[in-house]
Every structure is written in structure tokens, then in C-alpha cells.
Design a protein that fits this description.
The complex is a heterodimer of chains A (about 200) and B (about 230). With about 200 residues, chain A is an alpha+beta fold. Chain A is built from seven helices and eight strands, in the order βββββαββααααβαα. Chain B folds into two domains: about 1-45, no CATH class; about 50-210. Chain B has helices at about 50-70, 90-95, 100-130, 135-150, 155-170, 180-195, 200-230; strands at about 1-5, 15, 25, 35, 45, 75-80, 80-85, 175. Classes of the chains: A alpha+beta (about 200), B alpha+beta (about 230). β1 (about 1-5) of chain A pairs antiparallel with β1 (about 1-5) of chain B, so a sheet runs across the interface. Bound molecules: zinc ion (2 copies).
Chain lengths: ~200, ~230
């Protein structure tokens, strides 16, 4: 017979099985995966991924995402320029989709992850009724949507290479893809059990 | 809240909500219905007596559609009399051609390799569960699925195609290709599968199936032992 407090129960990140937190390195009783305990669990890895993502996001906004070569004259546009162009054309819904996917989602995700990583180490905002698990859940849901612009560039570059008009992927597409990749890694390496730690 | 358990296996009757991380006690529900988290109303688990058959049918259909989506044109355009079309593979090879190896590699994994791999793994898993065979392999497949599922982005790719089409309005005449529709069906199947089949349920199902089999073996062995005893 075991009596356990419900606060001592943790979920395995791989198989979702409920486990008893044995305050050291836990091994999941169902799938054998390692479940780290909060005090030993490092946030350094998440920080490293997140910082890489933020650094990659800078060139992603400075360099052109897409270059249009029309009858020999080249014109490139950055993410923001692309959004503004679409808006001026009257393509409001698409302009908003790209704005959300390429600017709003990545920046929100950076801020949410910074907030989560800071708040598990320093007791800020713990008394507020913010459910940090829900914050994490939303970073997980919205994260991949920032790939939209990279996919669009891939599609247009693959499709439009005619003699009169060509669309070429810009430097920013690589930087952007790298940024999204590292943001996803940062979120996945973040240990949600850290939240319960305090 | 204090929880009393006979042993650690009793923990299977407690589920930690994926969204709000509160501990929820399992309740019996009727066939075909689902249990929701009492805090945030997130679906926790479903009960489906024909889960293996449903899963197998869904994953085979899904695999067929994702393979088809890779074979045919996605979109066709016409600019000033010249035609051009794109398939998923031609899109990736054109990115490689212009030196964007990293982006090409991402796309290859996110929209070709991972979706095909996930659905093939599901077929294999449901087949093993159906045949009640190779428990260790089934376990490894479940672990692998949990690791690659977040990296599957067919739905986002589908939205990206729509965005691209809108961007091309006015610039070209656009025809939607066969692959667009097969991809669309694949995404619907994928969404339905992630909503109706949770990996947690499959772990429970796996345990049930193989422990029943082990019990049966245990009951069988004494008889065969006595038989051996007589003959020797
Ligand atoms: Zn586990
Ligand atoms: Zn909940």
C-alpha cells in the first residue's frame, strides 16, 4: 500500500504515464524514459536553443525572404515588406496570416519561453493566477505555424521559374527555418516539471 | 490531495492532463465516448472497443493518400502562355538546385519523411496489436511515435499552399492539382487521428493485449508441462 500526494505525481514526457516523483532521476515505469527531477533538470539547454533561435531571427528579418526576377530586374522583399505589400494590394487576410505566422507567433513564442525559463528559477508571478502549463501548452500549439512563410517561399520558388518571371528563395528563408527549428527544440527540451518545482 | 495505491500499477488509473497538468482519476465511460478534464475540459481519453481495427483502417488510408500526394502536381500555373507546375518532390529539388540545402532538407523531413514514417509506424503498430505479437517492438514504436509526431507539418503546408495561391492571383492563371486534394484528405485523416487516438490510450491498450496473452500462456503451460511429465 502506497499513499502519495497528488503533487508528487508527474507525467512521462514520452508515454504520458503517471509516475511517482522520486526526487532524483526518475525512470518511467511504463516506457523506461528518463524523467528528470526539477532540481537536477537543466534549463541551460533550453536557453542555448532559444538564444540561437533569437539570433537567427535577426537575419531572417533583415535579408529578403523572396526575390522576384521579372524580365531581368530583381526585387527582393523582407518578411515585413512582404506583409506591407500584400496589405497595399488589398490581400488583407493573407497579409494578416503572414503577419501572425512570421512575426507575431515567433516573437510571442520567444517571450513565452523566456517567461517560463525565468519563472522556474526566480519566483516571479507565482502568486498570480497564470497557469504556466497552459502557457506552455499554447507555445507548443502555435509554434509550428511560423513555418508558413518558409513553405510559401519554397512553393513559389519551385513553381515560378519561367523565362519571363522567376521567384528565388532569399537568404532569410534559411535563417527563418533555422530560427523556427531551434525554437521548437527549445520548447521540447523545456521540462514542464520545472513549473511545479516552486 | 492524498492518493492511496495498492502498488505503482494503480497509477494507470490516474491521468495527468496534458494541458493544465492536474491529476485526474480515471472513470468508466461507455463505448465510443470520451472523458474530459474536470479542470480545463481537455479530452483525456476515449473508449473504443474496436480501436485497433479503426486505427489500422485509418492509418492505411492515410498512408495511401500521403503517398499519392507526393506523386502528382500540387498546383499548375500559366503566365503569358507558359505553363509550369509543382509537385512536392520538384519543389524540394528546385530548392536544392538553387543552393538552399537546409530549407530543402527541412521540407523533405517535415512534409515527406515524417508523415510517411508516422503512418507506416502506425500501420505496423496496429498490426502488431492485432496479432498480439512482438511486444518489445510495439513499445519501441510507441516511443518513436511520441518523438516524431510534433515534427509533422502537413497541415501547415496545406495552409501555405493556399497562401501561395492567393499570392499568385493576378499574376498567373492557377489550376489546383490532384495532389492538393489528396493532401487535403490526408490532413483531414491526420487531424481526425490525432484527435481520436491518443498515444496514452495505445499504451493502455498494449498493456491490456499483451498481459491477456501472457495470462493465457501461463494457464496453458502447466497443462503442457504435465503432458511432458507423463511422456518422459
Ligand atoms: Zn513513459
Ligand atoms: Zn486539464
Amino acid at each position: 500500500m502506497i499513499v502519495v500526494d497528488s503533487d508528487k505525481l508527474i507525467a512521462c514526457p514520452i508515454c504520458e504515464a503517471t509516475n511517482i516523483d522520486k526526487s532524483n532521476r526518475n525512470i518511467c515505469r511504463r516506457c523506461g524514459s528518463k524523467i528528470y527531477h526539477h532540481r537536477n533538470s537543466p534549463t541551460e539547454k533550453s536557453w542555448a536553443y532559444l538564444i540561437t533561435a533569437i539570433i537567427a531571427y535577426i537575419p531572417a528579418n533583415i535579408y529578403p525572404m523572396m526575390v522576384i526576377n521579372q524580365f531581368g530586374s530583381k526585387s527582393g522583399s523582407t518578411i515585413l515588406e512582404g506583409v506591407i505589400e500584400l496589405w497595399e494590394h488589398g490581400d488583407y487576410p493573407i497579409s494578416i496570416v503572414i503577419l501572425i505566422a512570421s512575426i507575431f507567433v515567433p516573437i510571442t513564442k520567444f517571450l513565452m519561453l523566456i517567461y517560463l525559463l525565468v519563472s522556474v528559477k526566480y519566483p516571479i508571478g507565482n502568486d498570480k493566477k497564470v497557469n504556466r502549463f497552459t502557457v506552455y501548452y499554447f507555445t507548443e500549439i502555435i509554434g509550428p505555424w511560423s513555418m508558413v512563410d518558409v513553405f510559401v517561399v519554397g512553393i513559389l520558388a519551385g513553381l515560378v521559374h519561367l523565362s519571363s518571371v522567376q521567384i528565388i528563395a532569399g537568404t532569410a528563408s534559411t535563417a527563418f527555418a533555422v530560427s523556427v527549428f531551434f525554437t521548437l527544440l527549445a520548447a521540447h527540451s523545456f521540462d514542464t516539471k520545472l513549473i511545479r518545482g516552486r | 490531495m492524498k492518493i492511496e495505491l495498492e502498488d505503482e500499477n494503480d497509477l494507470d488509473h490516474y491521468i495527468i492532463c496534458h494541458k493544465c497538468h492536474t491529476v485526474q482519476e480515471e472513470i468508466a465511460i461507455s463505448d465510443g465516448s470520451k472523458a474530459l478534464c474536470s479542470m480545463c475540459k481537455m479530452p483525456l481519453y476515449r473508449y473504443d472497443t474496436r480501436l485497433v481495427e479503426h486505427g489500422l483502417a485509418l492509418s492505411i488510408t492515410g498512408l495511401i493518400f500521403i503517398v499519392l500526394a507526393n506523386l502528382f502536381p500540387l498546383i499548375k500555373i500559366e503566365i503569358l502562355g507558359t505553363e509550369s507546375y509543382i509537385t512536392i518532390i520538384s519543389m524540394i529539388s528546385s530548392l536544392i538546385g538553387s543552393g538552399y540545402y537546409l530549407v530543402a532538407l527541412f521540407l523533405l523531413y517535415l512534409i515527406v519523411i515524417f508523415p510517411v514514417m508516422i503512418f507506416s509506424l502506425y500501420i505496423l503498430l496496429f498490426a502488431l496489436l492485432k496479432l498480439k505479437r512482438a511486444e518489445e517492438l510495439a513499445k519501441n514504436i510507441l516511443i518513436l511515435l511520441a518523438q516524431i509526431e510534433p515534427w509533422q507539418m502537413s497541415d501547415i503546408f496545406l495552409v501555405s499552399i493556399l497562401v501561395s495561391i492567393v499570392k499568385l492571383f493576378g499574376m498567373a492563371t492557377i489550376h489546383i492539382g490532384i495532389s492538393f486534394w489528396t493532401l487535403f484528405v490526408f490532413v483531414l485523416i491526420d487531424i481526425y487521428m490525432t484527435r481520436s487516438i491518443h498515444l496514452g490510450e495505445l499504451w493502455v491498450l498494449k498493456k491490456e493485449i499483451y498481459s491477456k496473452k501472457a495470462e493465457k500462456l501461463k494457464n496453458d503451460t502447466p497443462i503442457s508441462n504435465t503432458k511432458k511429465g507423463v511422456s518422459s
